[in-house]
């Protein structure tokens, strides 16, 4: 439980939620569960139906802790700007990730603490913006917590301590898997007659690269973040393959259904990632780090080491999605530094770099992607209307930008 100090002269921490879909509801719920002196004070979404649904559900569960008056409910592309004018302490950012860089910058400039879901961008231009905003947050004394909850899992925290203490020796290689599950039942599946191209793509955002970053970025950032955690930082280059074999219907936008990436790190260690979203495939999600003295294994439920220094975690595993909010509230109340912005930006770029390599068929260096790539997937303007159907990448033909 967080220490009950005062924030900006108030006992309660006031939260504004930007993005009222499933993750907006979930992160609001977990923040309320983590601390009794927290209230949801304002909400914003692009769509009225999303805001209404989440507001009603939270209010039914939490009553007057959902203190969102009608004049603090905002809808539209500029809804986040209106929300940031409210008397808030912290903003939860849970829109599709393409909007994250712009929303983070605005929140930090407005002097708000930020909890932001992963990934935090869909292209290198967005990643650079997030890094700049994170550096500005440090200057302003603001906290930033990222929704990479695996970093708060007790069994993984204990395993990483042992990896970094050298208990598996020098790392020589590793594997990272997340395969299975096509997400076929996700979201609305029929386009209404009055929906523009823009609205239809946003309501199916998971399957459009300009909005989600493709599934390697939107979902598998968790696994790549764990690998970066074990390795002590991001890779120096990568070479990838991928494609679209099972999920071919245009209902599934332009994202791939499988990727395979070789990531090389500073010391020449190569980590192999394989990921897919294909129905009927064996479901598997885990990471395996091989060292000169042993092998470290971890998944969402367990961690262990085999070798000279065997280890098996058998302690408690509290909900990491509650722990991450509690950690941020403690830092806010105690005036402690907590800023995960650059770290999650690097893990996001690790995924983006893999996608870019697979889309183009090119080997890529971290330095070039981080510093020189001009890839910006943002549309020319944000408004409901006509919009071209996103193109499906063809390795060897899709240009590297």
TrEMBL record:
One term of GO molecular function: oxidoreductase activity
Which branch of life, at top level? Answer: Bacteria
Q: Which residue numbers delimit the GFO/IDH/MocA-like oxidoreductase domain?
A: 159-295
Query: Which UniProt keywords are given for this protein, alphabetically ordered?
Result: Oxidoreductase
EC primary class: oxidoreductase
| EC numbers on record | 1.-.-.-
Domain (Gfo/Idh/MocA-like oxidoreductase N-terminal) spans: 13-147
Name of this protein: Putative oxidoreductase YcjS
Q: Which organism is it from?
A: Anaerohalosphaera lusitana
């Amino acid at each position: 439980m967080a220490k009950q100090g005062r924030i900006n002269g108030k006992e309660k921490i006031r939260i504004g939620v930007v993005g009222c879909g499933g993750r907006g509801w979930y992160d609001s719920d977990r923040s309320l569960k983590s601390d009794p002196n927290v209230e949801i004070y304002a909400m914003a979404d692009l769509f009225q139906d999303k805001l209404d649904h989440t507001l009603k559900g939270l209010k039914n569960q939490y009553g007057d802790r959902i203190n969102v008056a009608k004049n603090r409910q905002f809808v539209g592309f500029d809804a986040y700007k209106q929300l940031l004018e409210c008397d808030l302490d912290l903003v939860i950012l849970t829109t599709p990730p393409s909007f994250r860089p712009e929303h983070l910058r605005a929140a930090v400039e407005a002097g708000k603490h930020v909890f932001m879901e992963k990934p935090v961008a869909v292209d290198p231009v967005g990643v650079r913006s997030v890094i700049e905003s994170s550096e500005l947050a440090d200057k302003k004394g603001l906290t930033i917590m990222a929704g990479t909850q695996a970093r708060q899992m007790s069994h993984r925290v204990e395993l990483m301590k042992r990896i970094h203490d050298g208990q598996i020796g020098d790392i020589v290689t590793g594997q990272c898997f997340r395969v299975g599950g096509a997400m076929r039942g996700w979201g609305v599946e029929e386009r209404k007659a009055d929906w523009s191209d823009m609205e239809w793509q946003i309501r199916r955002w998971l399957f459009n690269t300009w909005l989600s970053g493709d599934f390697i970025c939107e979902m598998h950032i968790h696994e790549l973040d764990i690998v970066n955690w074990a390795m002590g930082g991001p890779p120096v280059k990568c070479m990838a393959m991928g494609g679209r074999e099972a999920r071919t219907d245009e209902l599934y936008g332009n994202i791939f259904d499988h990727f395979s990436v070789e990531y090389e790190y500073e010391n020449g260690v190569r980590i192999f990632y394989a990921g897919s979203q294909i129905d009927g495939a064996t479901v598997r999600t885990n990471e395996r780090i091989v060292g000169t003295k042993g092998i470290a294994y971890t998944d969402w439920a367990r961690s262990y080491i085999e070798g000279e220094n065997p280890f098996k975690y058998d302690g408690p595993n509290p909900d990491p999605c509650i722990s991450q909010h509690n950690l941020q509230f403690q830092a806010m109340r105690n005036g402690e530094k907590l800023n995960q912005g650059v770290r999650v930006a690097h893990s996001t770029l690790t995924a983006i770099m893999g996608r870019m390599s697979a889309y183009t068929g090119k080997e890529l260096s971290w330095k070039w992607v981080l510093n020189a790539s001009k890839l910006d997937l943002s549309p020319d303007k944000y408004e409901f209307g006509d919009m071209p159907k996103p193109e499906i990448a063809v390795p060897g033909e899709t240009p590297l930008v």
